[in-house]
Amino acid sequence: KQAPIPIPVPVIRLPRGPDGTSRGFCAARGRDRAGSVAEVAEQQARAALRERYLRSILAMVGRPVHFTLHERVQVDAHFGATDLDVANFHVSQLQTPLGVQGEALLRCADIISYSFQL
Amino acid sequence: MNEWMKKSPLEWQDYVYKEVRVTASEKNEYKGWVLTTDPVSANIVLVNFLEDGTVAVTGVMGHAVQTVETLNEDNQEVREKLMHMFMPEESKAYNPE
């Protein structure tokens, strides 16, 4: 009574992902795509720089941080988190010239520099 | 986009462990040893070793950077300190201290 199990058809060719400027699949496969020595070196440098940066952000969590903003405004706050593309800083107890803000989001476009001590 | 943000990761890498002077928007100026540059935001992280033994870390936003000038080439002592900074415990095991 049971229907016979269909024999799987071997996959000859997988559909191609989008190419060109999109962030989809690349037509060439893994190893072929590895690129030139220069590209690999650049990618390694990028990864090393990024790792050190993320660790420096991690070290800042919970510490008092001093920010220099535009118009020569200087503020202090406790650092909480940042988003991955480093577009915003979430801080607590932001001490502004007008008073203390319990929780705040500082947009990176408004920041010139930040500093903290170990 | 400024000149600094247009640099490639390999160019940013060249500044690591060197002492630089960074000029930023609104005549802000910073000096310190380069720990890294974030390849996403181009933010530069500078480290200064203060006389009282504390370490000051400063991040200058990539969008605000105007010039970066090398003051001192890297030396072994600073390189050792920066290399282990913020790294997880396992790598500290190799630290001679």
Report on this structure.
The complex is a heterodimer of chains A (118) and B (97). Chain A is α+β, with helices and mostly antiparallel strands. Chain A has a domain at 37-116: Roll (SH3 type barrels), CATH 2.30.30. Chain A is built from two helices and five strands, in the order ααβββββ. Chain A has a five-stranded antiparallel β-sheet with strand order 4-3-2-1-5. In chain A, β3 (88-96) and β4 (99-107) form a beta hairpin. Chain B has helices at 3-6, 9-15, 76-84, 89-92, and strands at residues 19-24, 28-37, 44-49, 55-60, 65-72. With 97 residues, chain B is an alpha+beta fold. The relative contact order of chain B is 0.22. The radius of gyration of chain B is 14 Å and the shape is globular. In chain B, a hairpin with a 6-residue loop joins β2 (28-37) and β3. At the A-B interface, α2 and β5 of A face α2, β2 and β4 of B. β5 (111-117) of chain A pairs antiparallel with β4 of chain B.
List keywords for this structure.
heterodimer, A: 118 residues, alpha+beta, SH3 type barrels, 2 helices, B: 97 residues, 5-stranded antiparallel sheet, 4 helices, globular, Sm (chain A), RNA binding (chain A), SUZ-C (chain A), Gem nuclear organelle associated protein 7 (chain A), SMN_gemin7 (chain A)
